[in-house]
Design goal:
Layout (H helix, E strand, L loop, with lengths): L13 E6 L10 H17 L2 E9 L2 E8 L4 H21 L11 E4 L2 H13 L1 H4 L14 H4 L12 H4 L5 H14 L3 H13 L6 H11 L5
Antiparallel strand pairs: 1-3, 1-4, 2-3
Length: 218
């Protein structure tokens, strides 16, 4: 049976998940993550994908991004892979595939879940016990959102801008949002959707997507 195409809608935010093959490490040191980050920034600009949040974990990558067209996300991820995989293989004397098949995408119900999705991925290093606080983990967008370190990869979503009238207000509100954490229901909703490549949103949001896309979602 042919695989169903990814559900990608232009100008709508998506969560993107890319894992290492057999969950093996895709980053072994800071240089690896820096190279991936820089190539991601270059390719996001090239293919007109606005990256709102990101985290690079040892064996996977999660992005929150809005493409300008249906093809941008795939082209961006393919181009990053063409840069990164040969470089990684040459550095570590390995060959073959690095990533686990196709990356997954999950459309996000922006008004209700975009900031929650951003919080979810930036708290991932803390939950994985890679850092005591999100600010202590270098390889995510948290430092940008919290006003600790600007990141030219990030394009702030209008919902982030809506957190306050000044940078200080937005940063303080975002820090508070992340400090609140998330409950098990929200974590299961976002994590489960990511694992399946399903939309992140309410029943009404998914029902509306079914009507628009003529695809079974519920």
């Amino acid at each position: 049976m042919a695989r169903q195409p990814r559900l990608i809608l232009p100008n709508q935010p998506h969560l993107i998940l890319q894992r290492g093959n057999d969950n093996q490490p895709i980053f072994r040191d800071d240089e690896d993550q820096e190279r991936f980050h820089d190539w991601l920034k270059e390719c996001a600009r090239l293919y007109k994908v606005a990256v709102h949040a990101w985290v690079l974990m040892p064996n996977h990558v999660i992005l929150l991004a809005t493409p300008a067209d249906e093809d941008g996300l795939a082209l961006m991820m393919q181009k990053v892979g063409r840069h990164y995989v040969p470089w990684f293989n040459n550095k570590y004397g390995r060959s073959g595939t690095l990533f686990q098949g196709r990356f997954r995408t999950s459309l996000v119900d922006a008004p209700n879940y975009l900031l929650a999705a951003s919080r979810y991925l930036e708290l991932a290093p803390v939950l994985a016990q890679l850092a005591p606080e999100p600010a202590d983990y270098r390889w995510s967008s948290y430092a940008h959102h919290a006003g600790l370190r600007p990141d030219t990869l990030v394009t702030d979503h209008m919902l982030y801008w809506g957190l306050g009238n000044t940078p200080f207000q937005r940063e303080a509100a975002y820090i508070d949002l992340v400090r609140q954490g998330y409950g098990s229901e929200e974590g299961e909703l976002i994590g489960g959707a990511l694992a399946k490549g399903a939309p992140v949103g309410s029943y009404a949001f998914k029902a509306d997507l079914e009507k628009k896309t003529k695809r079974q979602i519920l």
